[in-house]
Amino acid sequence: MLHTSDWHLGRSFHRVSLLEAQSAFLDHLLATVHEHDVDVVLVAGDIYDRAVPPLTAVELFDAALHRLAEAGVPTVMISGNHDSGRRLGVGAGLIERAGIHLRTDPAGVGTPVLLADAHGDVAFYGLPYLEPALVRDELGATKTGHEAVLTAAMERVRADLARRTPGTRSVVLAHAFVAGGTPSDSERDITVGGVAAVPAGVFAGADYVALGHLHGSQALTERIRYSGSPLAYSFSESDHRKTMWLVDLDGDGTVRAERIACPVPRPLARVRGRLDDLLADPALDRHEDSWVEVTLTDPVRPAEPMARLVERFPHTLSLLFAPELPGDEPLASYAQRLRDRDDQQIAQDFVAHVRGGNGPDDRERTALLRAFDDVRVDMARREVTG
């Protein structure tokens, strides 16, 4: 199995088009399929970067589907939180005849794609991104939240698997934030009620779980893995090694996996310091061909900093300022004060600020949670309905 996810076709990197790099990745994916004699390709969501993708992204995806079909390699795909499941799923029944299995309808989570090898059947269950408020009733979840709807979906998976021939192995594709995973700045927040992560135990019973959503390749357990995105989509991913997972599933359900490196269009670099120091430091020579994020620490903002930076680092894409302050300076930049704080925490801090230090009470915190959830659900509905 070749496990990948989070293609985000149509996305740019700080206004730089990534279409050529995304095309090169898909070339690499097809080459890997042939080189390693892959039996099935798994794509765990966020195929597009937005619900209504640009035409160039649609054309790239269409070409990828044709190439996978021509290669005769079954492919199982699910929709992610960036995709419009309804749009992505148009024509899924016809496309399935070519061996491309699009799973975008929450109602179908318990209906697998059945493939076979020398050891017997393998059931592939596609769990598209499940927005709790939109699918709770359909799945019969007892509560609203990611854990509740994924638990309900996995109950359908286990119920179907129990009816299969004994020894049938199972693979689950899901798009979610699972506890233990390490996020980056480029994933869209999917917090519900202040809780984003679901426990890995939700997926108990599956031989392999191919996850999408987090952009860093990582193994939560031997059987539960994120492939990560094939390209970096924020400077927070500068230390990522972009890969796909090549997974062997033995007849007894034993999993062995290795990482297949993805092509890098241009390395990323984050540099920090005073402008004159950065322009003169020979240790930074290695970053002159990189996409660069620069944080200037000059106490006084220098004149024309970007123009001077691009003379040495032609591919500087992001310029930030964090002026050095005296050691007893109580103030910090607004960005520093907000770092690692979610929307709910920022709102609560604002309430405390305007009240002279008195933060929200339990009733007000609940109202804030509901407000953020309502906004996110409304955005999800708009993407579904167009």
UniProtKB/TrEMBL annotation:
<dbReference type="Pfam" id="PF12320">
    <property type="entry name" value="SbcD_C"/>
</dbReference>
<protein>
    <recommendedName>
        <fullName>Nuclease SbcCD subunit D</fullName>
    </recommendedName>
</protein>
<dbReference type="GO" id="GO:0004527">
    <property type="term" value="F:exonuclease activity"/>
</dbReference>
<dbReference type="InterPro" id="IPR004843">
    <property type="entry name" value="Calcineurin-like_PHP"/>
</dbReference>
<dbReference type="Pfam" id="PF00149">
    <property type="entry name" value="Metallophos"/>
</dbReference>
<feature type="domain" description="Calcineurin-like phosphoesterase">
    <location>
        <begin position="2"/>
        <end position="215"/>
    </location>
</feature>
<dbReference type="InterPro" id="IPR029052">
    <property type="entry name" value="Metallo-depent_PP-like"/>
</dbReference>
<dbReference type="InterPro" id="IPR041796">
    <property type="entry name" value="Mre11_N"/>
</dbReference>
<keyword id="KW-0233">DNA recombination</keyword>
<dbReference type="InterPro" id="IPR004593">
    <property type="entry name" value="SbcD"/>
</dbReference>
<keyword id="KW-0255">Endonuclease</keyword>
<keyword id="KW-0378">Hydrolase</keyword>
<feature type="domain" description="Nuclease SbcCD subunit D C-terminal">
    <location>
        <begin position="265"/>
        <end position="353"/>
    </location>
</feature>
<dbReference type="InterPro" id="IPR050535">
    <property type="entry name" value="DNA_Repair-Maintenance_Comp"/>
</dbReference>
<comment type="subunit">
    <text>Heterodimer of SbcC and SbcD.</text>
</comment>
<dbReference type="InterPro" id="IPR026843">
    <property type="entry name" value="SbcD_C"/>
</dbReference>
<keyword id="KW-0235">DNA replication</keyword>
<keyword id="KW-0540">Nuclease</keyword>
<comment type="similarity">
    <text>Belongs to the SbcD family.</text>
</comment>
<comment type="function">
    <text>SbcCD cleaves DNA hairpin structures. These structures can inhibit DNA replication and are intermediates in certain DNA recombination reactions. The complex acts as a 3'-&gt;5' double strand exonuclease that can open hairpins. It also has a 5' single-strand endonuclease activity.</text>
</comment>
<keyword id="KW-0269">Exonuclease</keyword>
